[in-house]
């Protein structure tokens, strides 16, 4: 059992080392910070979407912005799109699960908002459709995926394709990148 534990920790470290040494990946983090900062400065909002563990991560990151990260400060307008279960189940029942995020993007997001989608494969149909809807509305899209990026690669203004094919390692890095973005946005917005 100890070997499995050590292998898992080492695998997580290795993925993060790969990110650390990838200057283009690090540059995209800076670009995401600037995009989100600009949206907040213009009175816009940031929205998150995901499925399963990625939905939990989306909600976690939204809470870091709307609650607090390091600073006691006013709330920033951030929300995870899956938190209204009545909406979610109605749209899934009436239109299909693939439509749950696209319809709410159409209904509440505005040009200049930012949509962050988390999908380890990059191929989750409901996230893909949400990004397609966002593109039609001049909404900035930021994809958090695994190595290949899937369909979200072509639909993302910025793509964080974590250099791994292992879902747990990808999700761990999604949270790390999200935390870094939140830390930097908070520091700059409330400087």
UniProtKB/TrEMBL annotation:
Organism: Flavihumibacter fluminis
UniProt binding sites for Zn(2+): 60, 64, 171, 179
Cofactor section: Zn(2+)
InterPro entries named in the record: GmhA/DiaA, Phosphoheptose_Isoase, SIS_dom, SIS_dom_sf, SIS_GmhA/DiaA_subfam
Binding site for substrate: 51-53, 64, 93-94, 119-121, 124, 171
Enzyme class of the recorded protein, top EC level: isomerase
Name used for this protein in its record: Phosphoheptose isomerase
Free-text cofactor note: Binds 1 zinc ion per subunit.
E.C. number: 5.3.1.28
Catalytic activity entry: 2 D-sedoheptulose 7-phosphate = D-glycero-alpha-D-manno-heptose 7-phosphate + D-glycero-beta-D-manno-heptose 7-phosphate
HAMAP family from the UniProt entry: GmhA
Signal peptide range in chain numbering: none
Family statement drawn from the similarity comment of this UniProt entry: Belongs to the SIS family. GmhA subfamily.
Any one GO molecular-function label of the UniProt entry: isomerase activity
Gene: gmhA
Keyword terms: Carbohydrate metabolism, Cytoplasm, Isomerase, Metal-binding, Zinc
Domain SIS residues, every copy: 36-191
Location in the cell: Cytoplasm
Keyword Metal-binding among UniProt keywords: yes
Function (record text): Catalyzes the isomerization of sedoheptulose 7-phosphate in D-glycero-D-manno-heptose 7-phosphate.
Pathway as given in its UniProt record: Carbohydrate biosynthesis; D-glycero-D-manno-heptose 7-phosphate biosynthesis; D-glycero-alpha-D-manno-heptose 7-phosphate and D-glycero-beta-D-manno-heptose 7-phosphate from sedoheptulose 7-phosphate: step 1/1
Further details from the record: The reaction produces a racemic mixture of D-glycero-alpha-D-manno-heptose 7-phosphate and D-glycero-beta-D-manno-heptose 7-phosphate.
Coarse class of the protein's main subcellular location: cytoplasm
């Amino acid at each position: 059992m100890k070997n499995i534990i050590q292998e898992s920790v080492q695998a997580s470290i290795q993925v993060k080392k790969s990110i650390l040494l990838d200057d283009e990946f690090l540059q995209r983090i800076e670009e995401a910070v600037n995009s989100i900062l600009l949206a907040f400065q213009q009175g816009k909002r940031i929205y998150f979407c995901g499925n399963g563990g990625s939905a939990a991560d989306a909600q976690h990151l939204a809470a870091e912005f709307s609650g607090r990260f390091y600073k006691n400060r006013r709330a920033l307008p951030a929300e995870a799109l899956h938190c209204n279960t009545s909406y979610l189940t109605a749209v899934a029942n009436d239109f299909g699960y693939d439509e749950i995020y696209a319809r709410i993007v159409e209904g509440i997001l505005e040009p200049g908002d930012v949509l962050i989608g988390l999908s380890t494969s990059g191929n989750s149909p409901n996230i893909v459709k949400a990004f397609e809807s966002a593109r039609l509305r001049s909404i900035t899209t930021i994809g958090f995926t695994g190595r290949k990026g899937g369909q979200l690669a072509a639909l993302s203004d910025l793509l964080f394709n974590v250099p791994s094919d292992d879902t747990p390692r990808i999700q761990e890095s999604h949270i790390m990148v999200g935390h870094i973005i939140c830390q930097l946005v908070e520091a700059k917005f409330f400087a």
